[in-house]
Amino acid sequence: MKSSIFLISACMLALGGCATTASVNENTTANTTQQLGMTALKIAVNAECINKINSIPAWQVASKLMTENQRQNTQTEICGCVSEKAPYSVTAVDLATATFDPNARASVVQQVVSNTVTSCINETFGKK
């Protein structure tokens, strides 16, 4: 009787370990995929931000008064701000869709940049 209980307990522990490992692996894969998606989003947002800034008339005038180094530093600061705000400007569903659909990705990136670029410009110039 005692050996049966011991055998059943050992089997349950072994099976429980397998279930836990599978769950941990699935969570790790999901987290890695999400991190890769966010990284890709930030890179795309940064590129779109630079294009967007260069099309803003106020930036075109202000940047003429800056040295090349100042212009690049300011652009980097503004687009860094936009990239950092990107995860808060997109839903998980939009991010998942954008991961697999290039048209959705372009739409999400444009939406994120449009929603955040002005506030980041204001934040950047408010610091100076």
Explain the overall architecture.
The chain has 128 residues and is mainly alpha-helical. 89% of the residues lie in helices and 0% in strands. It has one domain (34-127). The chain has helices at 2-54, 57-64, 68-85, 92-100, 102-127. The longest helix is centred in the N-terminal third of the chain and has 53 residues, at 2-54. The N and C termini lie far apart (79 Å).
Order of helices and strands: HHHHH
Gyration radius, in Å: 24 Å
The major sheet is characterized as: none
The first-to-last residue Cα distance is 79 Å
Helix content: over 70%
Question: Beta-strand level of the residues, as a percent range?
Answer: under 5%
- What is the mean predicted local confidence, pLDDT? 77
Number of helices: 5
Helix/strand-derived class? mainly alpha
Number of domains: 1
Protein name: Lipoprotein
Signal peptide: 1-22
Keywords: Signal
